[in-house]
Amino acid sequence: MSPPSQERLLIIDDEAPHLKALCDTLTEQGYATTGFTSAAEALEALRRAPFDLLLTDLMMPDMDGITLLRAAQEIDPRMVGVVMTGHGTVNTAVAAMKQGALDYILKPFRLGTLLPVLARALAVRRLRLENELLQQRLSARTHELESANKELETFSYSVSHDLRAPLRTISGFTDLLISHLGDRVDDESRTYANHVQNGVKKMNLLIEDLLRLARTTRAEVHRMPIDLSLIAREISEKLQATAPDRNVEWIIASGLTTVGDPGLLRVVLENLLSNAWKYTSKIPHARIEFGAETQSNGSTAYFVRDNGAGFDMKYADRLFGPFQRLHAESEFPGVGVGLATVQRIIHKHGGRIWPQAAPDQGATFYFTLPPAAAE
Fold first, then answer.
1. Closest by CA position to 368, among listed 311, 318, 294
2. pTM for the complete prediction?
3. Do 291 and 256 form a contact (C-beta atoms < 8 A)?
């Protein structure tokens, strides 16, 4: 079978008749051959022009095939080599393969034996070149993505930060206007002013969530031992204090510890427990649970579970995108950034997060940490 293209063979054999016969035979098979009886001349030719494969005699007077192959690969690290040897030097041929030769053939050889060896060696070279090209493309693409992400994070942080100043101006001058007009403000005008102030408050919440998302993306993970149960209990007490009359059964498992970033994992529990608090607000006897389960593979999955509004699992893939919501704001207020923040934190720790839910039957959010981080 002829090679797919004119692949260039550099052939070295100190026996001139044998070299000529080999070059002529392989040329007839479709290869572009260049032959030398001198190793030094072959190396000089390699410096002047590229070759795809080096086919060299193993035992030569001026330079043995192993030394020649090493020198050739210093000139072209992608060079593949095949050595030719007699029956008495098979061990030396094996040693040549340990030094970088891809294969060897025994003298005297038949064409049916030689061609498959050359085809395999050239196939390896093509794979190496393709892999190198893919690595270069992957590296360039990774660099582009990293640059784009950094620019996006910087833009998000800057815009969110700079939006606060005009909002403070709007809020402040609205208050001043109402105060200045005093009793001259009619009910309709006061209603409009309240709408403005409510819009400012909502925008402030959105900016705060965007800033938190940007900070989370930029933050480095500093691992240390953490008591997740203690953090969850502190968060539950703060939430209950905002509405002491709400009938909520809190079930916080004890002794759930891990290794991770305390600040970032606190954000995870704040978001998940706050969501459970929010989506059980219309339940007469709400129940919110924080615990852990052992998965089938032996790993630990932490969870936050509630018996609130729940959602249809066919929309679950939308949950972790920024500004994605499954409930109308008139039902449950929010901007839909919290779960996106949670997912990024869990991924930064090397874990994953997923939900289980059903409409009006509550929701459970599971998250894992890798074995190296969770003990």
1. 294
2. 0.51
3. yes
Q: What is the rounded CA–CA span in Å between residue 100 and residue 70? A: 8
Give the domain 8-109 fold. Answer: Rossmann fold (3.40.50)
The pair of three-digit structure tokens given for residue 142, joined into one six-digit string:
């990774």
Which pair of tokens denotes residue 172?
A: 């402040």
Q: Which residues pair with 356 in a beta bridge?
A: 364
Q: Which of 20, 8, 13 is nearest to 105 (CA)?
A: 13
- Kind and range of the H or E element at 191? helix 187-218
Domains of the chain: which residue ranges?
8-109, 144-218, 224-368
pLDDT digits (tens, 9 = 90+) for 194-239: 888 888 887 777 777 667 666 676 667 888 999 999 999 999 999 9
Q: What is the DSSP string of 21-53?
A: HHHHHHHHTT-EEEEES-HHHHHHHHHHS--SE
Q: What is the pLDDT of residue 330?
A: 47
CATH superfamily of the 224-368 domain: Histidine kinase-like ATPase, C-terminal domain (3.30.565.10)
CA distance readout (Å), 255 to 226, 258, 368, 375: 10, 10, 16, 12
Nearest to 287 by CA among 253, 252, 250: 250
pLDDT digits (tens, 9 = 90+) for 256-297: 999 998 988 998 999 999 999 998 988 889 999 999 999 888
Q: Tell me the C-alpha distance between 124 and 20, whole Å.
A: 26
Helix and strand element counts for the chain (H, E): 9, 12
